[in-house]
Write a structure and sequence with these properties.
By secondary structure, this protein is of the alpha/beta class. Helix content is about 30%, strand content about 30%. The chain folds into 2 domains: about 120 residues, Rossmann fold (3-Layer(aba) Sandwich), CATH 3.40.50; about 100 residues, Beta Barrel (OB fold (Dihydrolipoamide Acetyltransferase, E2P)), CATH 2.40.50. It is globular and about 55 Å long.
Length: about 230
């Protein structure tokens, strides 16, 4: 997993990087961690699996950097904000900026480990290969908004556009991480990460697409996902 840290205080970036490297050693997982003290420098790089962004920075602040990242990578980014401001979460949510997590400064190694465990558990970084003709295509769960059954094919509605694969929806569902995707109706499998709102009849995603809701246990599944995300 590739991680980017962006904080205008170099000491903070080094401190977080050391804790992440210790986490990787303790869990025996492969992580690379790059440090940035300027949001503009970060925006010039390829996509990372996870971004730790300082909420308030000189120049571009964390919200501005997050907006630019989501625009560049079609919203398929995972962002955890770093802040010592109690009202930061409410302000970010009120501005309509999706956040996958918050860590309060001064950073605590145990809380960081819990957050990284959470990201792994929710399979934010899951990737798999799907056969397309004679080739195999790598697909990232972050990129999928929802999957739609189309006879003996499945259409993946992704931030980068739609792709069709010769799979039954149930076979695709078996490849996806449990807890992150949910079948809202016989023909639709939704990425819970991108649910904007729902009522008794439909689910609206953050891109504006609205899908029929037939599953009676959707609310329970969504609340379970949100609990795991925010605990």
């Amino acid at each position: 997993m590739r991680i980017a840290i962006c904080d205008d205080e170099a000491r903070e970036t080094e401190n977080l990087a050391r804790m992440i490297e210790q986490y990787a050693f303790d869990r025996d997982v492969e992580l690379t961690c790059d440090r940035y003290t300027d949001g503009r420098a970060l925006l010039g790089q390829d996509k990372y699996d996870l971004y730790f962004l300082d909420y308030r920075m000189d120049g571009m602040d964390g919200i501005e950097v997050a907006k630019a990242l989501k625009e560049r990578f079609s919203h398929a980014v995972t962002i955890c904000y770093l802040t010592n401001y109690d009202a930061a979460a409410a302000e970010i949510i009120n501005q309509g900026i999706h956040a996958d997590g918050f860590l309060k400064k001064p950073l605590d190694a145990r809380q960081l480990a819990d957050k990284l465990d959470q990201f792994y558990r929710l399979s934010f970084f899951h990737r798999f290969e799907l056969k397309k003709g004679k080739r195999f295509q790598t697909v990232y769960t972050q990129d999928i908004l929802y999957a739609e059954a189309d006879d003996k094919q499945v259409i993946l509605h992704m931030w980068s556009g739609n792709e069709t694969f010769h799979y039954l929806l149930r076979d695709l569902e078996a490849l996806l991480p449990q807890g992150l995707f949910f079948r809202v109706q016989r023909s639709y499998l939704v990425n819970l990460q991108y649910v904007d709102s729902y009522d008794a009849k439909s689910v609206r995603l953050v891109n504006g697409d609205e899908l029929p809701l037939k599953a009676k246990d959707f609310q329970q599944a969504y609340h379970r996902y949100m609990f795991l995300l925010n605990r």
